[in-house]
Amino acid sequence: KEINDESSYLYWAYKNNIPVYCPALTDGSLGDMLFCHAVRNPGLIIDIVQDIRLINGEAIHASPRKTGVIILGGGLPKHHICNANMFRNGADYAVYINTAQEFDGSDSGAQPDEAVSWGKIKGSAKPVKVHCDATIAFPLLVAATFARRSHSANSTN
């Protein structure tokens, strides 16, 4: 609400009433900083379960609409987003963009067919994994989408 920077995705999410979730808020050094702050200032309470409840609710209550996932990178956010769709018998669309490889057994490197086997992506979906750095591929994907939309709008005028 207080961000007044049009170059921020949080600014546009707020302006368009798009929820932003962070189920990994306590992961890594941020979690350590929150712990230290809470020791010095008792009373700080962060409800991580509420974020998971809200993420799962987005997928569960999407019916009869379809759901799609665009996973940039992987790890814990990928896990939570895909798991949420398991509660609705899988996402209808899935695009993974990352450089992770399957050989080490990481969730980030898992191919979409692994998510299909768990019911996180529907068997009827045509998921795609793009082997590229997300900071390169995603802006190109977004630009192409807007270019196509703009071209279609200009063609009908």
From TrEMBL:
- Record-linked InterPro entries: Deoxyhypusine_synthase, Deoxyhypusine_synthase_sf, DHS-like_NAD/FAD-binding_dom
| GO cellular-component term (any) | cytoplasm
- Signal peptide range equals none
* Gene3D superfamilies reported in the protein's UniProt record: Deoxyhypusine synthase
Q: Needs which cofactor?
A: NAD(+)
Superkingdom, natural source:
Eukaryota
Q: Which GO terms describe its molecular function?
A: deoxyhypusine synthase activity
Keywords linked to the UniProt accession: NAD
Q: Name one Pfam family in it.
A: DS
| Family named by the database record | Belongs to the deoxyhypusine synthase family.
The protein, known as:
Deoxyhypusine synthase
Report the source organism. Aegilops tauschii subsp. strangulata
